Amino acid sequence: MDLGIKGKKAMVCGASRGLGLGCATALAEAGCDVLMVARRPDVLAQAVDDLRLATGANILTLAADITTAEGRAAALALMPEPDILVNNAGGPPPGDFRDWDREAWIKALDSNMLTPIELIKATIDPMIAKGWGRVVNITSGAVKAPIDVLGLSNGARSGLTGFVAGLARNVAKHGVTINNLLPGLFDTDRIAQVVGAQAKNQGVSFEEAKAAREKSIPAGRMGDPAEFGATCAFLCSVHAAYMTGQNVLLDGGAYPGTF
User: Fold this and answer.
1) Angle between helix 115-130 and helix 69-78 axes, rounded to 10 deg
2) DSSP-assigned states of every residue in 8-52
3) 231: part of which helix (H) or strand (E)?
4) What is the pLDDT of residues 51-74, one digit of tens each?
C-alpha cells in the first residue's frame, strides 16, 4: 500500500532503538525524510547506518535529550516544521509509589506529558497553516489497564491522553490528526526492565516472569517493534485522515475489555 507520505518530513523522538526505531524505520520505508532524535550517540549512529543502508532514505540525526528545553530547541532547529511528529520518550522507572518524592513525579511529567505537549505546541500551527499534519504519541497500554509497578507512567501518560483528547478535536478541521499508540508487551529493553521489576517483586527469575507474561497474551508472544512501526506509519498516512483523537492499543489481545 502506498501510504501517500513520500517526501514528508518526520521527526521521531527516542528513535535509536525499540518502538521509536520501529516507527522511524517504517516512515523511512514509506519515503519520508526522517529526523531521528535519541540520547545515546553511539546507539543512534549504529541505528542510522543500518537504516540508511536498508532504505536509502534521507535521514537527519540528533543526539540529544528531547525531554530538555535544549534538546527540543536543537531538534526544531534541524527540522523546524515537521509534517509528522512522533512523540516518544523512555518511561519512568517502576517501583512503589511510597518511594517516589516530588522530584520523581516532576521528572515523569516532564518526560511523558509535558515534553510531548511542548513539541506539539511548537509544531501544530505550521501543520495547520499547511492544512496537513500528523502527530502520534507513543504512550502505553497502561493508560487503559494500569500496571501496579508503573504508577509514574500511569499518571503522566494518562495526563497526556486527556490533553490530546481535547486538542485533537480542535485541529481536525485543519487536516491535522493526533492519535496515541498504546503498546502492550513488545520485545524491547523497556519491557525487560518492567518484567525484571515484577520478577523481583514476585521472587521469581526473569525467565519465569517473562514466560508468565507471554502466557497471559492471547497471541502467545511479545510484539515485534516492526509491527508497531507499521501501525504508526499507517496513522501518519493519507489513509488515516479520518482517524483522530484515538487510543490505539497494540497488545496481542491482552486487554480483556470490550471498549
Assistant:
1) 20
2) -EEEEES-SSHHHHHHHHHHHHTT-EEEEEES-HHHHHHHHHHHH
3) helix 225-235
4) 999 999 999 999 999 999 999 999
**CA atoms of 94 and 90, how far apart (whole Å):** 12
Nearest-angstrom CA–CA distance, 30 and 86: 15
CA distance 104 to 3: 40
With contact defined as beta carbons under 8 Å apart, do 136 and 179 qualify? yes
| Mean pLDDT to the nearest integer, 91-98 | 84
Q: Are strands 133-138 and 59-63 parallel, antiparallel or unpaired?
A: unpaired
Cα four-point dihedral sign 111, 58, 125, 4: negative
Question: Rounded mean pLDDT of 218-224?
Answer: 95
Model confidence pLDDT, tens digit, residues 25-49 = 999 999 999 999 999 999 999 999 9
Is pLDDT of 194 > 80? no
- Complete DSSP assignment for 129-165: HHT-EEEEEE--GGGTS--TT-HHHHHHHHHHHHHHH
How far apart CA 163 and CA 67 sit, in angstroms, is 18
* Mutual angle of helices 102-109 and 151-171, in 10-degree steps: 30
Which stretch of DSSP H or E encloses residue 247?
strand 247-250
Alpha carbon distance 218, 141 (integer Å): 15
pLDDT band at 146 (very low <50, low <70, confident <90, very high): confident
